[in-house]
Design goal:
Largest sheet: 2 strands, antiparallel
Radius of gyration: 42 Å
Strand order of the largest sheet: 1-2
Strand content: 5-15%
Helix content: 55-70%
Distance between the termini: 107 Å
Number of strands: 2
Number of domains: 2
Number of helices: 3
Structural class: mainly alpha
Length: 184
């Protein structure tokens, strides 16, 4: 009987081991399947985030264009208001009583009138160096940020665009100061 009990226990242990191993294997397959599903969901969530970032960048571009257009309109209106018309001032010049003509050495003026013009306030037209630097820096920084950040190119583009825009503005502002467009 002892051998029979040992054989029963050995058989039961083997069967239990096989059952245990197969149940663990099923759990691994189940975890692999849920892991793949989770990865798909994560990927889709990242894609949605990228699309949101692209949309935000497009909105910023549209707002920038609107601001640029409104600033151009304001600048044009301001330029129209500040234009100073040239004034011509006529003065009678003293004539000598000797009746000398032009080209003689009597010291008198040969023309009856002289004119002087008023100063006109001119405003430089076109983009300032600060605006150009900001746009170039933003575009370059966004491109570099998207290329450098391989895991999240949208976020890299936003961060790079901000950093590039700030740097471009700083450099352009310095150029404006050198050229006299902006006073210190």
């Amino acid at each position: 009987m002892n051998k029979l009990n040992v054989m029963k226990s050995l058989f039961l242990t083997g069967a239990f081991s096989v059952l245990l191993l197969t149940s663990c294997n099923k759990d691994e397959k189940l975890q692999t399947t849920t892991s793949l599903e989770q990865q798909k969901l994560d990927y889709q969530a990242r894609q949605i985030d990228l699309e949101k970032q692209k949309l935000a960048i497009e909105k910023e571009k549209i707002n920038f264009e609107k601001q640029k257009d409104s600033l151009n309109k304001v600048a044009e209106e301001k330029a129209k208001k500040t234009q100073v018309k040239e004034r011509v001032v006529y003065r009678n010049s003293p004539r000598s009583s000797s009746g000398s003509y032009a080209g003689t050495s009597s010291g008198s003026s040969s023309s009856g009138t002289s004119s002087s013009t008023g100063t006109t306030a001119t405003q430089k037209k076109g983009w300032s160096s600060a605006a150009k630097g900001t746009v170039i820096g933003t575009v370059g920084g966004a491109a570099a940020g998207a290329i450098i950040s391989k895991k999240n190119p949208g976020l890299g583009a936003v961060i790079g665009g901000i950093a590039g825009g700030a740097t471009g503005y700083t450099i352009g502002r310095a150029e404006d100061r050198k050229s006299g467009r902006v006073q210190k």
